[in-house]
Design a protein that fits this description.
The complex is a heterodimer of chains A (131) and B (138). Chain A has 131 residues and is mostly helical. Helices cover 79% and strands 0% of the residues of chain A. Chain A is built from five helices and no strands. Chain B has 138 residues and is mainly α. Helices cover 67% and strands 0% of the residues of chain B. Chain B contains four helices and no strands. Chain B is elongated. The chains are: A mainly alpha (131), B mainly alpha (138). At the A-B interface, helix 4 and helix 5 of A face helix 1 of B.
Chain lengths: 131, 138
C-alpha cells in the first residue's frame, strides 16, 4: 500500500518464515519428548543451534537494512524484540542443560512457542500495524 | 521431614524450572515494554505504565524467589504470586469497568488477554507449585 510496504520489510521474508516454522517444529518435537518423559535429546539442542543461527541471520539482515538507511516504524520496540529474540534459544539451551528431565523438554517447548510470537511482533514493529 | 517417596522436590527443580523459565520470559517482556513506555510516553497513560513497571518488578522477584528456593525464596515467591493474582484479577475487572483508567494496554489488562491469559494462569500455577513443594524445605 505505502511505499515502505512496497520496498519490503527486511524481517518479513523467507528467512523470518523459516525461523517461525523451525521454531514450531522444534516446539512440537520437544512437546512429544516431554509427554514421553524424555529429557532434551541431541536433536533438540541441534534444533536450538539451528534456530539461533537463523535468528542471527535475521538480525544481520535487519542491521544491514538499517545501515542502508531503512528505519523501523517503532525503533525502540524493534530493537527490544530483536535483542530478546536472539537471546531466546541460548536461554532454552542453558535451562535445558540444567534440567535433564522431561521438564527440560517442556522448557524447550515453551520457549520455542514464544519465539514465533516475538518474530511476528518484530515484523509488526517494523511495519507499524497499530502495534 | 515427611518423605513421600518422590524424588527430592524444591521450587527450582523439575516443573519448577519450567515455571521459572516462563516467569523469566514474562519478566523480560514486561520489563522491556514498561521501560520503553515509561521512557518514551509516560504522560499518555501514567497509571498503566507504572502498573506495567510494577508487574515487571514482581515477575523478576518471583523468578528469583523460585530460583533461590529455601525458606526466604519461598516466602518471596508466595508474596509475589499472591500480589500477581490480586493484580491481574483486580486490574482485569477495573479495565472492563472503567476503560478510561487504562487507556493503553498493560500486562494485566483484561486478565492478560494480550498475553494469551498466561498472566492469569501463571500466579495460580505458582501458588499450586509452592503448595506441592511445601514439605520439602526444612
Amino acid at each position: 500500500m505505502t511505499s515502505a510496504a512496497a520496498a519490503g520489510s527486511p524481517v518479513d521474508g523467507i528467512l523470518a518464515t523459516a525461523t517461525i516454522v523451525l521454531s514450531l517444529v522444534l516446539a512440537l518435537w520437544s512437546l512429544v519428548a516431554a509427554v514421553r518423559h524424555r529429557p532434551p535429546d541431541r536433536l533438540q539442542f541441534v534444533g536450538l543451534a539451528a534456530l539461533e543461527v537463523a535468528l542471527l541471520a535475521l538480525a544481520v539482515v535487519a542491521l544491514v537494512a538499517l545501515g542502508g538507511g531503512e528505519r523501523p516504524g517503532e525503533p525502540g520496540a524493534f530493537f527490544g524484540y530483536l535483542v530478546t529474540l536472539v537471546c531466546l534459544p541460548p536461554l532454552a539451551w542453558v535451562l535445558a542443560k540444567m534440567e535433564p528431565t522431561r521438564w527440560g523438554s517442556a522448557i524447550v517447548c515453551a520457549i520455542c512457542l514464544v519465539t514465533p510470537v516475538v518474530v511476528v511482533r518484530l515484523q509488526q514493529t517494523w511495519a507499524v500495524l497499530g502495534g | 521431614m515427611v518423605e513421600t517417596g518422590t524424588p527430592e522436590r524444591t521450587t527450582n527443580k523439575g516443573p519448577g524450572r519450567l515455571l521459572i523459565a516462563v516467569y523469566l520470559l514474562f519478566a523480560i517482556a514486561a520489563t522491556s515494554r514498561a521501560g520503553l513506555q515509561l521512557a518514551t510516553k509516560f504522560d499518555e497513560a501514567p497509571v498503566a505504565y507504572l502498573l506495567s513497571g510494577l508487574a515487571a518488578a514482581i515477575y523478576i522477584v518471583a523468578a528469583v524467589g523460585l530460583a533461590r528456593a529455601g525458606h526466604a525464596g519461598r516466602r518471596v515467591a508466595l508474596a509475589c504470586c499472591s500480589v500477581e493474582l490480586i493484580g491481574v484479577v483486580g486490574v482485569g475487572v477495573l479495565s472492563l469497568v472503567d476503560e478510561e483508567l487504562f487507556p493503553d494496554e498493560t500486562v494485566w489488562s483484561e486478565f492478560g488477554s494480550g498475553y494469551g491469559y498466561i498472566p492469569l494462569v501463571l500466579p495460580v500455577l505458582g501458588l499450586l507449585w509452592l503448595w506441592r513443594t511445601r514439605h520439602d524445605t526444612d
